[in-house]
């Protein structure tokens, strides 16, 4: 919010408004916000929490505000990135030119847990693999943006973004019009249009496929289905006949043309992937390969979520688009490479070490915050399985003022914009800002106790 001692221009009007509230009034508003989230069902489960209690994704009332100029960099950078990643995924499941040309190591891709052999030769509808992406972006103290990771399998969080906006509008009525904040309410229509684009039928039947009520993001699954006016289904609601997918309804079977699936690739079809899956639909992959149903995202996209593959995205952009990346990666050390491995082992106290296929803040070491026993533990883990780890320098993430019991204080944040790829690539003019609620913490994930903020993108 501040640059040295002066307030940054995007925040100036909001700062004047904020100063009209006493600390007591802000805490009262914050409490009302928490209660509103609970009453709306904006909750999630944390799998490792033995109490089994549903939690809210705590919404801090002070928004993150981004100028139109800054947003244009993010928007163009993400469009460039998703375009290149889509070409990369298509290539590695077909001719593998980028591997043959040595731009990305062949073994790195083929050894990825998310490189799915059944997808070799697959041609997804309209040639699009990554329909919905939630890339995580961070900003350092200098103000420069970096992409921290790409989430292409089943990125979550957009429902919280949309509901956060409604709650903040009630907390600060009148501010939006005066500041010129770009709306995000059209996301459900954007998502619906993108999914409809995947079918050649004039009025395709759509469904959102959920693992069920015990999934941590079930609120989002039901919310998006309701907002789009489509059915929310589980694997038990669907059946495959003659390579077509049908939904069981009270009026009989109804063919489904497009499925927005919130189930991981390997659980989609027990006949093709994990035979023990109780969540998927036997035969759905065969129906997909036959072109009788569209799936978003396409199976196989998870290979680009691999954090070791992430390290090569700048080269992927250069290879397919002949452009330099608009938003750079965070510098990354690949533990599968000897020199990088030695550097990581020698400097683990100063680095962030991550599992290449983990998510949600799990399987991670933040060197400067960890004790010597954790450093020793991770050195052994990395030595035993170098391919499974990357490391990055500890960035000094930017902070945004946050309401705490002791008053307003800075807390570290990241940014998750949402990108839809249909007839063109569109970036929602807003994002889920995730905030580390613990003082000094760099971990913003909801599963690790993080919260969220509304993100205001201003018009020009």
TrEMBL record:
Origin superkingdom = Bacteria
Q: Where's the Circularly permuted ATP-grasp type domain?
A: 63-436
Q: Which InterPro entries match?
A: ATP-dep_Glu-Cys_Ligase-2 (IPR051680), CP_ATPgrasp_2 (IPR025841), UCP005522 (IPR016450)
The protein's matches in Pfam families, at most eight in alphabetical order, are given as:
CP_ATPgrasp_2
* Coiled coil ranges: none
| Name of the protein this chain belongs to | Circularly permuted type 2 ATP-grasp protein
């Amino acid at each position: 919010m501040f640059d040295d001692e002066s307030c940054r221009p995007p925040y100036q009007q909001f700062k004047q408004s904020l100063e009209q509230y006493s600390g007591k009034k802000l805490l009262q508003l914050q409490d009302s916000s928490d209660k509103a989230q609970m009453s709306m069902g904006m909750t999630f489960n944390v799998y490792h929490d033995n109490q089994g209690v549903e939690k809210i994704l705590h919404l801090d009332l002070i928004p993150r505000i981004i100028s139109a100029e800054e947003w244009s960099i993010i928007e163009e950078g993400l469009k460039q990135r998703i375009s290149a990643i889509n070409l990369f995924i298509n290539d590695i499941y077909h001719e593998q030119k980028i591997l043959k040309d040595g731009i990305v190591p062949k073994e790195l891709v083929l050894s990825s847990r998310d490189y799915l052999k059944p997808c070799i030769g697959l041609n997804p509808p309209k040639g699009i693999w990554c329909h919905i992406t939630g890339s995580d972006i961070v900003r350092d103290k200098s103000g420069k943006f970096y992409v921290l990771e790409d989430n292409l399998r089943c990125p979550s969080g957009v429902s919280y973004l949309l509901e956060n906006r409604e709650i903040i509008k009630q907390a600060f009525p009148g501010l939006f019009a005066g500041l010129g904040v770009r709306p995000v309410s059209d996301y459900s229509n954007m998502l619906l249009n993108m999914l409809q684009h995947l079918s050649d039928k004039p009025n395709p039947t759509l469904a959102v496929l959920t693992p069920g009520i015990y999934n941590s993001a079930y609120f989002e699954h039901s919310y998006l289905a309701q907002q789009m006016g489509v059915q929310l289904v589980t694997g038990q609601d669907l059946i495959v006949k003659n390579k077509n997918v049908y939904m069981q309804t009270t009026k009989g079977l109804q063919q489904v043309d497009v499925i927005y699936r919130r189930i991981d690739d390997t659980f989609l079809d027990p006949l093709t992937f994990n035979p023990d899956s109780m969540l998927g639909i036997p035969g759905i992959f065969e129906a997909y390969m036959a072109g009788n149903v569209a799936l978003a995202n396409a199976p196989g996209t998870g290979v680009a979520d691999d954090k070791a593959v992430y390290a090569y995205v700048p080269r992927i952009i250069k290879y397919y688009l002949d452009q330099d990346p608009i938003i750079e990666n965070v510098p990354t050390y690949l533990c599968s490479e000897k020199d990088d491995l030695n550097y990581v082992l020698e400097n683990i106290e100063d680095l962030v070490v991550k599992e290449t296929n983990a998510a949600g803040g799990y399987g991670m070491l933040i060197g400067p915050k960890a004790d010597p026993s954790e450093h020793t533990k991770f050195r052994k883990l990395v030595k035993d399985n170098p391919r499974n780890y990357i490391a990055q320098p500890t960035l000094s993430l930017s902070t945004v003022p946050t309401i705490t019991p002791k008053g307003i204080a800075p807390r570290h944040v990241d940014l998750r914009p949402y990108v839809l790829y249909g007839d063109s690539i569109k970036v929602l003019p807003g994002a889920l800002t995730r905030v580390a609620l613990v003082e000094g913490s760099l971990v913003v994930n909801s599963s690790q106790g993080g919260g969220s903020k509304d993100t205001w993108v201003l018009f020009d």
